[in-house]
Amino acid sequence: MLKRLSRWLFHGRKGTGARGHEPDFDESRFDLHPEASPSLLHALDELPGDRAAMPAPALGAQDKRTGHSAYRQHAIHRHPVSASSHTSRSMRAPLSSPLRALWRWLLLLLIAGLALQLFFFARIALMTRVDPQSTAFERSELWRLWQESRADPPAPVTANGKKAVVRKPKPLRWRQQWVSYERISSHLKRAVIASEDDGFVSHPGVDWVALQEAWMRNAAAQARAEMQAQRSAAQRTTQQAVRQPKVVGGSTITQQLAKNLFLSGERTLLRKGQELVLALMLETLLDKRRILEIYLNHVEWGEGVFGAQAAAQRYYGKNAWQLGPDEAARLAVMLPRPRFFEKLPNSNYLADRSGVIESRLWFAQLPP
User: Fold this and answer.
1) What is the pLDDT of residues 326-349, one digit of tens each?
2) Crossing angle for the helix pair 186-196 and 288-298, nearest 10 degrees?
3) CA separation (Å) from 6 to 3, 9, 10, 309?
4) Do 326 and 288 form a contact (C-beta atoms < 8 A)?
5) What is the pLDDT of residues 233-286, one digit of tens each?
6) Contact status, residue 75 vs residue 83, Cβ threshold 8 Å
């Protein structure tokens, strides 16, 4: 009894002494199980009867088979459940780290996407008071035209001893001038609505029926093109070119404005989805009158020709508010392919389609 009490007092005095008088213990010198310590193992070894465990090894001992310290081996034999759980946790940790990295990247992408949408929202909100000076499409076209104007001219050509002719680079041509909504001809407004989006006043920015019809027409055209390609392959006429189907967009004036303001001209599902989101933002923050005003001031009407004022001066030598019904109808028909019709101003299609649009002018509804 006295021996056990003295032993308890000895260990207790060693463990409960003042903190300033505790001996230094370097844990980095020992390779221990997380749930075991030298003092605990020695204390358990001194318990009497069936509660006593196997003797604790010496401090410097090491197992030759496993390479672990003797204290770790001692803890594993004493606590097999804890050791197995520790091993399973150490095996699961490397497997979970790629998942954590994946979730981290997905979270970053989500935050970046939300930040981009907030940027677009702020830009559109600013357009309620400030007129946009340029669009993403205009800047890309200006860069392309500037690159072409800076390109090196071709080498001089000599023939039959004649003097070489040096071709000058193509000059940079750019026309764009903002005019207010009131200074744009009402004939041009009606013609553009009748030609591009006859339900502009009534729809919420996206015409879902037109999108569905365009999707069905494109699918049918693609199916016909594939059948033609299979028929050509069966007939072994590989030199015969298969005509690609024409892609119908079904975009409203609001969607076209969203694409011109912020997006590129590539045809992808991601770009189309972003276009729909921007169209809904435009309809939420701006009224129909403001949307049509921005659209008519930045839509393309030829190579380097943007806006109603520049188009009226380029093709008719007059201001935008002076356009008549026939002139407005011809400009509206040019919108889907302005560079093509700029080179073919006297085409039969342009004349026939202009007559159809002119007959619809008075049925087109303007925004209040």
Assistant:
1) 999 999 999 999 999 999 888 899
2) 90
3) 5, 5, 6, 106
4) no
5) 666 544 444 444 444 456 899 999 999 999 987 778 888 899 999 999 999 999
6) yes
Query: What is the fold, at CATH topology level, of the domain defined by 175-206+252-368?
Result: Penicillin binding protein transpeptidase fold (1.10.3810)
Alpha helices (H) in the chain, listed in sequence order: 2-15, 38-45, 70-78, 80-126, 136-150, 186-196, 208-234, 253-262, 269-285, 288-298, 308-315, 325-334, 338-343, 348-359
Q: Provide the greatest CA pair distance for the chain.
A: 129
Within 10 A of 295 (CB to CB), how many other CB atoms are there? 23
CA 151 – CA 149 distance, rounded (Å)? 6
CA separation for the pair 52, 49 (Å, rounded): 6
291: tokens are 């949307």
Residues 6+ apart with CB under 8 A from 281: 120, 121, 124, 258
Residue 207 · residue 199 · CB < 8 Å: yes
Q: Encoding tokens for residue 192?
A: 């553009």
The distance from CA 353 to its chain's CA centroid, rounded to whole angstroms, is: 37
Q: Is the dihedral of CA 263, 266, 269, 270 positive or negative?
A: negative
Burial 41-51 (b: 16+ CB within 10 A, else e): beebeeeeeee
Q: What is the pTM of this model?
A: 0.66
Distance of CA 222 to the CA centre of its chain: 27
Q: Could you give the dihedral angle defined by the CA atoms of residues 33, 34, 40 and 42, in that order, rounded to the nearest 10 degrees? A: 10
pLDDT band at 18 (very low <50, low <70, confident <90, very high): very low
For residue 285, what are its two tokens?
A: 């923050």
At residue 69, the 3 state secondary structure works out as strand
- Name, in order, each residue with C-beta under 8 angstroms of 361's C-beta and a sequence gap of 6 or more: 187, 190, 191, 194, 325, 328, 329
Domain boundaries, the chain: 32-83, 175-206+252-368, 208-249
Terminal Cα-to-Cα distance of the chain (whole angstroms): 104
> Which pair of structure tokens corresponds to residue 207?
């015409």
